[in-house]
Amino acid sequence: MSTPTAQRWHRRGGGAALGMLALVILGVGLGFGRADVALLGLPLAATAAVALRRPVGGASAAITLTAEDDAIVAEVRIDGATGTELVVVQAAAYEEPPTTVVVSPRRAAALTARLPLLHGGPQEVLRVGGQVVAAGGDLVQHLDPRIARTTIAPARERMTSLLLPHRLTNRPGGHAARRLGDGLDFRDLAPFTPGDRLRRIDWRATARSPRPESELIVRRMDATAEAAAVVVLDSRDDVGSVVVEWGSNRPARKGVSSLDLARPAVVAIAATYLDAGDRVAFHDLMSAGAGTRSGGGRRKLEQIRAVVNRTVPRAGASFRAPVLPTAAVVYLVSTFLDEDVAALAVLWRSAGHRVVAVDVLPEPSLDGADEAHRLAHRVLQLERDDRLDRLRRVGVTVVAWRDADRDLLLRQAERYRGRR
Q: Do residues 237 and 315 lie in contact, with contact meaning Cβ atoms separated by under 8 Å?
C-alpha cells in the first residue's frame, strides 16, 4: 500500500477579483446615492466570501493493491478536506497513458479497478495523480503522483524428469551410484572379504557354494549418492512475445516475456532436485549478489523463490561466471540471444559438467510488424538457431521451457546418459 501525501492549496485568484468587483459596485452605488446599484454588488460580495473561504486541512491519496489468481485489484482512495467540491483523478496502469476520472465527493472518493495480471516479479501496477478543487474552482490542490508497485510470485510448475550429472557426489543421497555401498539396489554376489559386514552374508548363496565350509558369500549393493545441481539465470533480457515491442518493452503490450517463463522454470527445476534430496545452488549471471549457496531442504526452496521473485532485467550489465561444484548438472536459463551466454555453456560442458540449456524465449508474434521488423527478426532467429544447434553438437541438452514435451526430452536425454 502506498503512503498518503498532502499538498498545499493554491488560489487561482477568481475569488479575490470577484470581491474587488463587488467592493467597486458597492462604492459607486453608495457614492452616487444609487441604492439599486449598491444592491447589485451584494450577490457578488456573497459569492466572493464563499470563494475566499479556505477549506480546513488538506487532501491525501493512497493506493491499496490486492493480488488474486488472475488479476490485481487496485483501490484508490482520495481523502479531501472539508469543503472539497470536485476531485479529478488521473490513473495510468502498467505505464500506459493516464485515464481521467472526475468524482464529486463530500469528504472522500474511493475508486476500485480490477487490472489483469500480466507479468510476474517486481512491477509498477498503477500511477495515480490528480487535483482537488474547492471554493467554486478558486482553490486547487495538486496531489503528487502516487506509484503502486508489487511483486508477483511465479506460477508453480512441476517437472517429472531430472537429469543427473555424469558423476555423483560422495555424500549419501537418493540416486544409485556406480560404486559399492549401503544402498538398496542389488549389485552382485561375491566372496566374503575383510571389511564386509556380517549382515551382508547371504546364507542361501553360501549353502549353494561348492565350498560352503571355507567360503562365505555376501550380497553387494550399489551405494546411493546425491547430485549437485546448479541453476543459472541470464536476466539480461526480458523480451516479450510481441516482436515490435522489443525496443519499447511496454509491459501492457509486449505479451508474455522471457522472465515470465524463466522465473517459474528456475523454481520448478530447483523444487524437483530438492524433493529428490539433492543440493541446489542458484546464481544470476547479471548480479553477483543475487544468488544462493548450495543447500537442500524446503528452506532452500523458499530462499531461491524469494530471490527469483525480485529478479529484474539488467540490460547492458556484464556478467561473472559463478564457481561451480565438481561434476555438477548445470541448468542455464536464458533466451540465448547473445553469443557470450552460449559460449559459457560450451565452457562448462568442456569442463565435464552436465549442461542443460533451458530456452525461455517466448513464441514470437509478428502482428503489426513491418518488413524491416520481419527481416530483422528472421536474421536474429537464424543466428539463434545456429547457436542452439552448436550447443547440441557439443553435448548440451537444449530444452524449450514453453514446449509441452520438455519432460519427454529430458527423459530421452537421461536414457542416452544411461547407455554411455
A: yes
